[in-house]
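Hello forum,

I keep getting stuck at the same step: I have a sequence, I want structure tokens, and every attempt I make locally crashes halfway through. Rather than fight my setup again tonight, could one of you with a working pipeline run this one for me? It's a single chain of 231 residues.
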Amino acid sequence: MAEKLILVIDDDRSIVELVKLYLSSEGFAVEVAHNGREGLRLFNQSQPALVLLDLMLPELDGYEVCRQIRRESNVPIIMMTAKGDDIDTIVGLELGADDYVAKPFNTRELVARIKAVLRRTETVALPNTAPPVKNVIELGNTRIDLARHEVTIEDQSIELRAKEFDLLKVLAQNTGIVLDRDRLLNLVWGYEYFGDTRTVDVHVAHLRDKLNGSNAQIQTVRGTGYKLVVV
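Reply #2:
Ran it on my machine without issues. Output:
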């Protein structure tokens, strides 16, 4: 089996060397860039399985690198930040990052996150050789095709990222049932996910925007979580 390639974009050479050492010991191939422009060049050249991206970079910062990658690819992105402000995390997630880790971080935890994110994306990408008996959920004017990972509203296709689709699927399979944030984290991101519940809130906000005009609406149950209802 070919090694999965991880692209590390970070200008802190000591952190890069440590991360490279641990990832290599876990069987990953690693490429390194020390600024945003070099990172984008290597991304386009090597097509990595995952990008580990620092926020504070010379030439192009991590936000812009993430934005440009997302214009053409859904490759998993884990952002690294030395800042403690919540806004940095939220902005990174809104731009399309799949996860984040704050510096200084535990290297074993970082490797566990990388493996968890790769498992999730690989599961999404697996071909449906034996689709489930009920592979379509219809909620009013909204149709969710689980086998094809397609969502349509009034026969118009809407584009969802992998975890947005997974979140909608879980909510749709539990229509009318309140799911708290921890439960959604477990069901959508997996038990090995080390993030917090803000990840759920950001993805729910994105999903609500994309479901504009749908009979399926995500309601907030204050102090508890979310439920999907058909109106």
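Residues 28 and 221 are 42 Å apart (CA to CA). If your local run keeps crashing, start a new thread with the error log.
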